């Protein structure tokens, strides 16, 4: 079940993207599961079609879903690639943190701020 909190500072597309990603990663949504159409999900959640479209695009870019033209969007079997990318990024981040001498607690606060801001990582560069 997807819940969008209109009072949240996190943009709706990011709330949707994060919830779907979590459901895919914890296998609540199994590989091969067909997702609702963008229009249908937008109507169900009371969101703009473009908002849902952006969430789907970002999930596709992360390798968590794949779109098969008119057949729709499905949970991808390549989702593990996304996890591996995240592991590599975390290792790179840890090396940067160690190199500049930032302590673990501050490093975690930086990551939490990045994750909750709804901003793409490139905006923090």
Structural features:
125 residues, 5% strand, 5 helices, single chain, Arc Repressor Mutant, subunit A, mainly alpha, two-stranded antiparallel ribbon, 2 strands, 2 domains, disordered C terminus
Summary, kept brief:
With 125 residues, this protein is mainly alpha-helical. 57% of the residues lie in helices and 5% in strands.
Measured between the Cα atoms of the first and last residue, the distance is: 34 Å
Instruction: Give the radius of gyration.
Output: 16 Å
CATH first level of the largest domain? Mainly Alpha
CATH topology tier name of the largest domain: Arc Repressor Mutant, subunit A
User: What structural class do you assign from the helix and strand content?
Assistant: mainly alpha
Give me the side-by-side strand order of the main sheet: 1-2
Helicity level, as a percent range? 55-70%
List the helices and strands in order: HHHEEHH
Low-confidence stretches: 121-125
Number of DSSP helices? 5
Average pLDDT for all residues? 89
SS strand fraction: under 5%
The biggest beta sheet reads: 2 strands, antiparallel
Number of domains: 2
The CATH superfamily of the largest domain is Winged helix-like DNA-binding domain superfamily/Winged helix DNA-binding domain
The outline comes out as: globular
DSSP E strands, number: 2
């Amino acid at each position: 079940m997807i819940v969008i909190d209109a009072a949240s500072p996190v943009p709706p597309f990011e709330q949707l993207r994060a919830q779907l990603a979590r459901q895919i990663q914890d296998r609540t949504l199994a590989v091969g599961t067909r997702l609702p159409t963008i229009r249908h999900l937008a109507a169900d959640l009371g969101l703009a079609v473009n908002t849902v479209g952006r969430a789907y695009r970002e999930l596709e870019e992360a390798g968590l879903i794949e779109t098969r033209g008119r057949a729709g969007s499905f949970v991808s079997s390549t989702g593990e690639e996304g996890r591996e990318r995240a592991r590599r990024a975390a290792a790179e981040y840890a090396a940067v943190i160690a190199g500049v001498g930032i302590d673990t607690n501050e490093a975690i606060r930086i990551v939490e701020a990045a994750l909750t801001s709804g901003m793409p990582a490139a905006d923090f560069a």
